[in-house]
């Protein structure tokens, strides 16, 4: 029977945290400063509240501080932009996270684009995307960075592979496709208007699912030996791939939970530590 490799993001994140803790302590010892991640949450979406809490807990675990800013549901784009500008100016803040999604009346992209590139530790600014795509020095979009970190850690070959990314959102599908392309994969990006999705997925050596629909990718679509990366996280702790049935066909997979999610938080924290190290002249 096929025993696929589990691409365990949870354990990997826990191991990387040990190193982050040492780096944070070094910053404190040398400069007497503590890295600070500012998290902005607008409204009371329960999933977002949980994510922000998890990010705050991760800061505490590595010895960083998190500055939590809660804004009411009715906040306007202008008010949110003003808050971001304030955090850009704040010398004690090293990273800024605007929790996605914001309420529908807010121009989210305009807000993302206000974040100072040097503090864009979640990698959501359009210029961050452009620089990352062109392989210039930049922070990286956290979830795609998490996926790439997992694939590299487990020595999954990317170069020359046929990779199908399902989803093209600015924070996930699009940037992960660019990162995979930069690693010399042949990348196909699918979306809601894609025809013959099943046939396209059937050709893939690696599938990255970023759709936001529970168990959307069916086991019958999966080629024998395929690597499955499930970025989805839906109610009931299920991803975007029908992993239960697809596992026996794949060679490796990210579990849900415990795969991409924990490493996303880790990448956010890691880039905040890096931001502090840069600002303080330690790297
Ligand atoms: P999103 O903004 O809603 O984007 C979903 C994408 O899926 C869109 O590009 C959409 O196509 C495509 N899509 C929808 N229906 C489709 C269909 N029938 N066939 C093919 N493509 C289809 O979602 P997102 O923010 O990228 O998030 C995707 C998933 O990842 C969600 O489950 C979310 O919870 C999860 N997520 C996880 C993390 C983490 O850290 N683990 C972080 C962020 C998000 P169109 O562009 O044509 O509409």
From TrEMBL:
Keyword annotations from UniProtKB, A to Z: Amino-acid biosynthesis, Histidine biosynthesis, Hydrolase, Methionine biosynthesis, Multifunctional enzyme, NADP, One-carbon metabolism, Oxidoreductase, Purine biosynthesis
Protein's name in the database: Bifunctional protein FolD
UniProt keyword Hydrolase present: yes
Similarity comment: family membership: Belongs to the tetrahydrofolate dehydrogenase/cyclohydrolase family.
Segments traversing the membrane: none
Domain annotation Tetrahydrofolate dehydrogenase/cyclohydrolase catalytic: ranges: 7-122
Entry-linked PANTHER family: C-1-TETRAHYDROFOLATE SYNTHASE, CYTOPLASMIC, C-1-TETRAHYDROFOLATE SYNTHASE, CYTOPLASMIC-RELATED
Reaction it catalyzes: (6R)-5,10-methenyltetrahydrofolate + H2O = (6R)-10-formyltetrahydrofolate + H(+); (6R)-5,10-methylene-5,6,7,8-tetrahydrofolate + NADP(+) = (6R)-5,10-methenyltetrahydrofolate + NADPH
Organism superkingdom: Bacteria
Quaternary structure, from the entry: Homodimer.
Pathway(s) the chain acts in: One-carbon metabolism; tetrahydrofolate interconversion
Natural source organism: Pseudobacteroides cellulosolvens ATCC 35603 = DSM 2933
GO cellular component terms listed in the entry, alphabetical order: cytosol
The keyword Methyltransferase is assigned to this record: no
UniProt-listed GO biological process terms: L-histidine biosynthetic process; methionine biosynthetic process; purine nucleotide biosynthetic process; tetrahydrofolate interconversion
Pfam family, one: THF_DHG_CYH_C
Entry binding sites for NADP(+): 167-169
Function: Catalyzes the oxidation of 5,10-methylenetetrahydrofolate to 5,10-methenyltetrahydrofolate and then the hydrolysis of 5,10-methenyltetrahydrofolate to 10-formyltetrahydrofolate.
């Amino acid at each position: 029977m096929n025993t696929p490799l589990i691409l365990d993001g949870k354990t990997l994140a826990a191991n990387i945290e040990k190193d982050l803790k040492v780096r944070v302590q070094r910053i404190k010892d040398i400069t007497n400063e503590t890295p600070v991640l500012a998290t902005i949450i607008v409204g009371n979406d329960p999933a977002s509240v949980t994510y922000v809490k998890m990010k705050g807990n991760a800061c505490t675990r590595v010895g960083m501080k998190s500055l939590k800013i809660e804004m009411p549901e009715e906040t306007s784009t202008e008010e949110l932009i003003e808050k971001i500008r304030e955090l850009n100016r704040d010398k004690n803040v090293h990273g800024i996270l605007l929790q996605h999604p914001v309420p529908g009346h807010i121009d989210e992209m305009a807000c993302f684009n206000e974040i100072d590139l040097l503090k864009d530790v979640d990698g959501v600014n359009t210029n961050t995307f452009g620089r990352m795509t062109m392989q210039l020095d930049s922070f990286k979009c956290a979830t795609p960075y998490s996926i790439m970190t997992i694939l590299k850690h487990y020595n999954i070959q990317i170069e020359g592979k046929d990779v199908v990314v399902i989803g093209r959102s600015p924070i996930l599908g699009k940037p992960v496709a660019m990162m995979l392309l930069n690693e010399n994969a042949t990348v196909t990006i699918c979306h809601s208007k894609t025809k013959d999705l099943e046939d396209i997925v059937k050709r893939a050596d690696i599938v990255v699912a970023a759709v936001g629909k529970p168990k959307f990718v069916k086991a019958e679509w999966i080629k024998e030996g395929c690597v499955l990366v499930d970025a989805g996280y839906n109610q009931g702790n299920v991803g975007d791939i029908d992993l239960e049935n697809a596992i026996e066909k794949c060679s490796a997979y990210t579990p849900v939970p415990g795969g991409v999610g924990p490493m996303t938080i880790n990448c956010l924290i890691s880039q905040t530590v890096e931001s502090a190290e840069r600002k303080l002249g330690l790297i």
